[in-house]
Amino acid sequence: MKLAKSRTWIFDNPLFSKWVQYADALSDTPSGKGTSAISTLTAQYGDDDLYKILKAAERDAKSNELASRLRTDQVNHWIAIAKDPVEVYQLYDLQYAPSRLLQNPQFSAWIKYVDDLNAKHEGAISIIPTLRKYYKDAELFNMAELAKRVKETKTMGLKLDDAFVQFWINERKTPVGILTELRLEATTKMMESPLLSLLVKFTDAYNLKFPQTQTTMIETLTNAFGDEEVTKILTAVKTSDWKAKKIATELEAAQLKMWLSSGKSVDDVYDLLKLPSRSSHYDFAGNPGFKTWIAYMNTFSIENPDKVARLLSALATQFKAERPMIQILQAAKKFPSMERDAAKLQLQLAEKVFATGIPPNKAIKKVALDSVGDSVLSSPVFTKWMNYVDDFNKKNPGKEESWFSTLHNSYQWDRLDTLL
Questions:
Q1: How far is residue 322's CA from residue 366's CA, in Å, rounded to a whole number?
Q2: If I label 286, which of 38, 75, 148, 305 is the partner at 20 to 30 A Cα–Cα?
Q3: Where is the RxLR effector PexRD54 WY domain (predicted)?
Q4: What pLDDT does residue 60 have?
Q5: Is the pLDDT of residue 393 over 90?
Q6: Is the pLDDT of residue 360 over 80?
Q7: What is the DSSP letter of 287?
Q8: What pLDDT digit, counting tens, does each position of 131-164 carry?
Q9: Which of 19-33, 337-351, 353-367, 378-392 shows the lowest mean pLDDT across its residues?
Q10: CA terminus-to-terminus distance, the chain
């Protein structure tokens, strides 16, 4: 049968379907002398024109069944000859569907083509290089995120994420490198960014692929931003109503574990968090790094219960001013691992302050009662201070001080009323 160039002729001709059967049957014989129908049609019309002919024929009820079968044969032919995914992408006119790419059925068909191509040839062809010809990475990340929010397109969004992860693995990228590529910055917004989840997914895949260089998310963030900056971010997120509070808490726990496993001492962590000089009269209240440091003291103490008393005594030697040291002990008391030793030393230091005979309004600051908060009245140091006020007033007639007025100067009236 003579094939004409006319696009309508081949499907209008009643002999065409018989020729297709004949050609395919001949190509399937043991001799293999025949050429399949799709190969012959491709040679006659070329991929582009044949694809358009078949697409048009699919829209006609009379030719739909045969055209659909030939379209499947055409895709299988492309897979057999390893047709470039870029060419297929363009053939599917996907370059003209920028805004709703992941919702386009042709995109799903193209993804399947690349998957089948890799399965057939045991290759590692990625969809990412093709997509990068038409989109910036930021646009693709945004597409994936929006797609994942809709049930009908969630699978495609996840597939695009996975494609990026596999592409980076094949490129032997590192988590720190990907963090930079994702343009994640050292701010609290980073913890809410969906790109952080993509980094987590990549890190998991990286650790599976390269177990000899395994890393963690907290190590990646620390390598990129430093201990102090990461601590500020995690503390800010934890103490706010951010949705990312849970992951921030998990990362902080990982941070403490990382420091402990690397053999860092309590002094080491104090220094890497760039906390104030130990010889200063610094007030730790409100310092985010201070809370993290105390949390590390707890982690260290749990692992080394026999070293707690020595640790606190050593700190008392380093911190010459009573106020910062007592603030340390006040914070340490909240953890069972340090509670007993910290409470004991705190009272000893308070007694030392009271023994100097300074006025109660100065003593209250020295023993840091003005920064205890709502639990001030239940503090054993407060009881000691109250006794000291009475003792001071007896020994210094004419210089008496009111415990209530002194306490009021440290806590506003309305707050003091609630405490009392």
A1: 6
A2: 305
A3: 74-114
A4: 83
A5: yes
A6: yes
A7: -
A8: 999 999 999 999 999 999 999 999 999 999 999 9
A9: 19-33
A10: 104
Tokens of 5: 């160039």
- Burial environment of residue 177 by CB neighbours within 10 A (0 to 12, 13 to 18, 19 or more): middle
**Residue in 313, 216, 315, 198 with CA at minimum distance from that of residue 261:** 216
Token reading at 112: 């399947």
Mean pLDDT across 35-59: 84
DSSP 192: G
Structure tokens at 277: 């000089």
**Spatial separation of the C-alpha atoms in residues 228 and 292, rounded to whole Å:** 10
Which helix H or strand E contains 361, and what residues bound it? helix 360-366
Would you list the DSSP string of 168-183?
HHHTT--HHHHHHHTT
Is the Cα dihedral 125, 130, 135, 140 positive or negative? negative
Calpha distance 275→297 (Å, rounded): 14
The owner of tokens 């009323």 is: 417
Asked whether the beta carbons of 285 and 327 are under 8 A apart, the reply is yes
As to burial, measured by CB atoms within 10 angstroms (0-12 exposed, 13-18 middle, 19+ buried), residue 19 is middle
CB 364 within 8 A of CB 405: no
pLDDT of residue 48: 86
Look up residue 291 and give its amino acid. K
Residue 259: DSSP 8-state: H
Q: Is 173 left (phi over 0), alpha (psi -120 to 50) or beta?
A: beta
Higher local confidence (pLDDT), 129 or 241: 129
The pLDDT, as a whole number, for residue 9 is 60
Q: What average pLDDT does range 323-350 have in this prediction?
A: 96
Cα(344)–Cα(364) distance, integer angstroms: 18
Q: Which residues does 207 contact at the CB level (< 8 Å), separation at least 6?
A: 214, 215
Name the helix (H) or strand (E) containing 208: helix 194-209
Greater model confidence, 17 or 390: 390
